[in-house]
Amino acid sequence: MILLVTGFKPPQILLKISNYMGAMVTPLSLLFIGKCIHQHGLRNLRIDKYQLAIMFVRFIIAPLITFYTLRFAGCSEFVTQVFTVLSAMPSAMQITIVAAQYGADSHFAAVSATTTTIASLLFVPVYMYLMPLLW
């Protein structure tokens, strides 16, 4: 914020380095998820009641709240449709790294990211189909 207000322009090399480092985050997260799942084995990649709760909130509750909030707020059809579909996207891959860094259950985070990504292959096209019909 201070850099923005003061108009300070960092050297181009620093901008490139930070851009490259930022571009590495998602691939590294995917590698870490793969490591977590490999450590625990594919047999332990089960969908339990907690995973079902995460998917229910992620793919049903969040899009419904988003859709009706934006419709009530008077947003345009396009904005409402875009944000509703975005709210049904899978969990961020980086959450696994954050969970491991702060001592939380990184395996649970890896399984959650994996299951929501797989489930999004079903839910996102359904939402894309339903959005024009609901307006």
UniProtKB/TrEMBL annotation:
Signal peptide: none annotated. InterPro entries: Mem_transp_PIN-like, Na+/solute_symporter_sf. One of its GO terms (biological process) is transmembrane transport. Keywords: Cell membrane, Membrane, Transmembrane, Transmembrane helix, Transport. It is a multi-pass membrane protein. The chain crosses the membrane at residues 20-38, 50-70, 82-100, 107-130. One of its GO terms (cellular component) is plasma membrane. It is found in: Cell membrane. Its main location: membrane. It holds the Pfam family Mem_trans. PANTHER family: AUXIN EFFLUX CARRIER FAMILY PROTEIN (PTHR36838), SLR1864 PROTEIN (PTHR36838:SF1). Belongs to the auxin efflux carrier (TC 2.A.69) family. This is Membrane transport protein.
